[in-house]
Structures
1.
Amino acid sequence: MNATAPQLNLAPLLDVHSVCKSFRKPDGDQLVVLEDVNLTLRPGEIVGLLGRSGSGKSTLLRSIAGLDGPTSGVVNYLGQQVSAPARGIAMVFQSFALFPWLTVLENVQLGLEALGVPEPEMRKRSLQAIDLIGLDGFESAYPRELSGGMRQRVGFARALVVHPNILLMDEPFSALDVLTAETLRSDFLDLWGEGQLPIKAVLLVTHNIEEAVQMCDRLLIFSSNPGRVASEIPIDLPQPRHTQDPRFRALIERVYVEMTARPRGEPRTGPKSERFPGTGIGTTLTHVSSNVLTGLLEAVNEPPYNGKADLPVIAEEQHLEVDELFPAAEALQLLRFAEVEGGDMKLTEAGLQFARGETDDRKKLFARHLITYVPLAAHVRRVLDERASHTAPKSRFFDELEDYMAEDAAEQTLRTIISWGRYAEVFAYDDNRQAFSLENPA
Amino acid sequence: MRLDRLPISVLRTRYVPGGWDLLAFVLVFAFFIYVAQAAHGLIGSLTRLEATPISLAPSALIGYAARTALRMLIAMLASLLFTFTYATLAAKSRRAEVILVPLLDFLQSVPILSFSITIVFFLQLTPGRVAGAEMAAIFLIFTSQAWNMAFSFYHSLRSIPDEMLEASRNFQLGGWLRFWRLEVPFGMPALIWNMMMSMSGGWFFVVVSEAISVGNTTVTLPGVGSYIALAIEQKNLAAIGWAIAAMAVVILLFDQLLFRPLIASADWFRLEQEAGFTASHSWALTMMRRSRFLGLVARAFVSMLRAGVKERPAAAAAAPVARRAIDWDSRAVDYAWYTALVLIGIGALWKTAHFVLAEVRLAEIGHVIVLGSITLLRVAVLIALASVIWVPIGVWVGLRPRAASIVQPIAQFLAAFPANLLFPIVVSAVVLYKLTPDIWLSPLMILGTQWYILFNVIVGASAIAPELRYAGENLGVRGWLWWRRIALPAVFPFYVTGAITASGGAWNASIVAEVASWGKDTLTAHGLGAYISTATSAGDFQRTVLGTVVLSLFVVTLNRTFWRPLYARAERKFRIS
């Protein structure tokens, strides 16, 4: 098992074939989350699934784990269809999912206990796993006594002790601080490189681009709405990989370019206004605080960028995670304050004007763009203007949005519009009465 | 249950042999002997029971207290069994849920006295034996304990984090192992709190459950409750005093030997240390943890959990599931199920109406609803009064941890204090000063349940983040402004929880509070509780059912239209994130 040389000639461990997943919306229509996803996993490789939140990558991971079956398509593990949690596929969770009433040892033993492994062997194997993952001495501790990093080590030990062929990792480092995550990642890669782990392949879900490039032999980039595999990037750098290595930086740049690429089939020409995303009130909006938008505009406006910035560079400088950066970039694009393409962000004329303006000018500009380019904002304002009372309950818009999107997406979209509307002072919202209005408490 | 889990601090201290083991040993065997003796009475014949009337001698109280305590324990075990099955079914089956949860809502609102019409059924199970009557008494105690426990466990099951469930499935935990390793421990802290509340509820109705009188059937089982009933009948104040003392001792024992250890062990089940949370200590738990003998028992329990799990071959897991002949998840089955439920519902409604209307005229239904409104008014006024008194006190106590640790156990004891024990004072006063029973009997209703307001407000006040209090002080917020802007909003969600419990309890207590007697003096207030109480002792099943149905409707409607929205609002408004 050598991480740097996936054995491509071997039969695949896992074969995901045209998997689709959709949910039934309240009105009976289908909401497609995953569309025609294909993927194979061979012995000896770490494959990364990279995408923004809502791209269905976690849903795919759950289908592979047999936790939640696909709507159509098949997941084959060692040639057999997965229809229930399969033995040989173990999972590491983002929130660790440890049982707080069990000690470290008992948590690790749990999987073996479920398999009916006799007590002495169970104990021996568990202690080995604890030893391997660096938890020696913590056997009798309860999870709440451990730091986040140690807790996730328990999560790893618990998964490894059952000697799975495939290890599924669902954003395993994203709940940890940067330094701890880095340590845990490199410890894992060391063990993997030395062939000490009793696993054959790894599938990693992440939204951290640097982590993906550091760990994986192959990256599948997911696009959103619906989630599908947009592109595949092989990573052939030898381990250990250094983040400052020019080849490493080049790969990161390439991932950014792929992730900001327009999905195939969308027009690249035509009048300028059509090149911006978001049409109709049915567009799902991801909540980004006006503080973040303002901060990003100011940063890109200032030297050395002077209105045009490379996304990986600005992300690092502003300490923005990918799941913060992309929604922010998308929001600026939607509001016509910036254009994003080829891994770069370029401010529009209005964007530059906003960055240079004072608070009042900014609010006016923001209000104008909000009403002009975000159809839902215009819709809310129009309804409020038309009504004699100048108020409208939240549920009115919520029901409307539910025709287009899932319940939580509708909730989030409304939260976004409320927040932006408040900043722009286009309308007010009273959470106690759950109602929009035109009056500001002045 | 989790005695096999030694925290490291204990592992590090040197094991002191003998002491704790001996104490554990003595206690365990004393318990067995006591159970055996108390249980001996169960199989005796009813005629012998009638031949040996209740004695008011203080020495007799020891045996009575043991009998009562045993009944409570058995009822508690039955409630646990009910909780684990009923709540699990409700949480796991979408179809069962639609009927089981509302059913629980209604069962909770049915006063314990209304269940006493089942006594004839239990007596017929074992003709001529005490066992039937004992079962009836235990069933009555059960009805005052089970419902809130089931609710709490159901809510816990529904709120297990997704990732924990996924982890348990990913690691192939079967239903049995998952239940004991995940679901029960997760529900434990809430369940223990509810078990304590249930125990208090059981004590509050101890007189009703032991001295049962339905029409011509009268059963008086030896126990503290019957002792109190007889003392009231004979106007024996000294005996009342002894009964209070005996109850205090038993409640204290339950607290020290059962609930303290449970609460202290519940700390294990928490994921994080919560705000305002202090580690609980229990000498009994320390004893159990340090005793090797009990350690053996615990290990036996753990291996019992594993016994059902056989080693499985590696290949079996990935095997495809065979197609089933009928798709049980389909909508067609849904519709069939809901149709069946509706038909059963209509049938039950028709049957009940037929049964009640055979005896009762329509005009009386209107009268019963008026009586319900009178009781409603009483409950509303009492909750308001109790809030005005206990919220400020609760906030004051909650902000002082030392005071809280003193007040909590006292309030807990008072919550278990049966209303009947105050009958002598209240009835004498009303008769002596010629007061109106309609007003002066009312305080008895809130006697047991007002403490839930106090409990919850104390918890809420002690959970106020220190930063919030410092910020208030820093800004110089004082006096009424401090109450209005900081204290009251902070405890509001907790207060609502307490008030919901208090209101539900007050409705239930109306059956013992609207009719009070002391010797030959019996005072009756106008209200639904008195109506049900009178109907039950007259053996009038139709009126008992009618009164119960109306009372349930009042309680459930009040919960749905007032308390639930208020709670939702409190949750939404006072949450930071």
2.
Amino acid sequence: MNALLAIAPLLVVGIGGLLIMLAEAFGKPQAPEGFDSAGRVIDAGAGRSAEIALGAAVILFASAITSVGLWLVGPETLEGAAAVQPYLVVDRFSLFFWFTLCTGGGIACLLAGGYLPEHGLDRAEFFPLALFSMVGAMALSASSDVLGLFVGLETMSIGVYAMIGLRRGNVRASEAALKYFLLGGFAAGLLLFGGALLYGATGHTDFVGIGAAIADANSPVSAGLVLGGLALLLGGLAFKVSAVPFHMWTPDAYEGAPTPATSFMAAAVKTAAFASLLRVLLTGFGDPRLMSWGAGWPPVLAVLAIVTMTYGNLVAGRQESVKRMLAYSSIAHAGYALVGVVSVMGSKSGAASVLFYMLGYTVSTAGAFGALILCGRRGAEAVSYEDLAGIGRRHPAAGIAFAFFLLSLAGVPPTAGFFAKLNVFGAAIESELYWLAVIGLLNSVVGAYYYLRVLVYMYMREPAPGAPIATPMRSGYVATALVVAAILVLGIGLLPGLSLEAATLATLKSGG
Amino acid sequence: MIPIGNVIEHYVLLASVIFVLGAVGFLVRRNALVQLMSVELMLNAVNLALVAFNRQHSSDMNGQMVSFFVIAVAAAEAAVGLAIVLSFYRLKSSVFSDEADSLRH
């Protein structure tokens, strides 16, 4: 019973997902079942995505609140938590990520409640998929075992594959799902073989045991197996955080997917993968022989961070589609967060800076995709820069919302994005990686270019003569999602001390 | 009688060869179904390695337990994957992943 209390946030989402699925399957169809005039399937799930979205969002926000409750009670006092270790470790680190993930997912579900009916994709299957995928993401961020890692990762990914392919009649959505599925399966294979090699070297599948076996000087482990296992494991996780050169799927999957699914991917999948990366490296590979500048993973991740930031920013600047630009920008953000992961080796605040970064990034990017949804309407989804021309002056609310989230992504004070970048680069300086911090700063300047370009189009350009004039959609769901995201972005930006303190508390308990 | 340590080495070597074959197959072939099979081959190599290593660390059954989960999850993944390939085939009448090119810019 105590164990159930400890994993309550996970259970809320899991059981909620089952209820939502039943509500969707046994609800009363709005029209006789069959096919409509456009050939779309009419069944119990059709035409009811708005109400189901509300349920799904309530469940996710309830889970976020449950995580906060457990945080206040103190996960150390939960006696049952030991029963589910190491497959699920309920500590402040997990609770921090559960809150972040559920908030991001809740925003994405609210966005879907407005987007799906508006764009003739009124299918309620989206929401059970999102909730089950969220269960996987939460398990992934809390797992300290190869088995839990793999099962969490796949539970998360399988739901997302289906969410991307939701628009079945669309070639682009189908291609996006195919590419993400193939590369995701490949990445899972790499990760798992890495786990098998580590098991062979140490005899443990849990990362605490692996770390202890590596540190044990009396019974040396095979260095080849450990390094090979670590490399494959990092490769698998790098796919999920979309670090260059494992990023090939990201732009296509982000662009082809329905925008709420994109926002779910950018917010939840990437955050959960970073949580797992941080936990694996700190608990399993915190040994000085593997975590120093001369050897082990920090130099490798530093190179990955630089390549990822630079490539993401340079290619994002060349995009004509805003959605694709945001996809490349999410690659660049993975690079910034990797700077924080590298700083863990020399700085006490390194891990906290990554946690803070993921919280700020999750709400900002979910809001940015939400604002993109807001700027389009049926038959005229806002995709390119041209689509947004002049919208800031004609529709001030939509313009301000979009501008606000882009400024946070660019790192302009007083938003969450500014303090997120400040902390990450501060941690890099603290671990004496000055050049890494400088490259990061230069990259944020380059990044500002393409975010500001959207503002230029919104406020200083007029649509070309004869081009369709974009009008924002009206939806209480999208508006609510944007308000929630904006409050969080601004709140974290104005009171960074509170969330940074929480992030610092969260890392102290992670056993690093 | 061959010592058990050597036999495990052979199994792990075999698993590595199968894994590399799967990985190369995935990267070289462009037929989505063959790529899917290559991924399955990689996962089976993992299972073989896990079971072989479990023989070496025989104090618990962790390796074999993980391999059961891998089998189950791989089946779930294949179910969703085949549905995605099918939906792609309906639209493009092809299962070649290099024909998935409408998203390039």
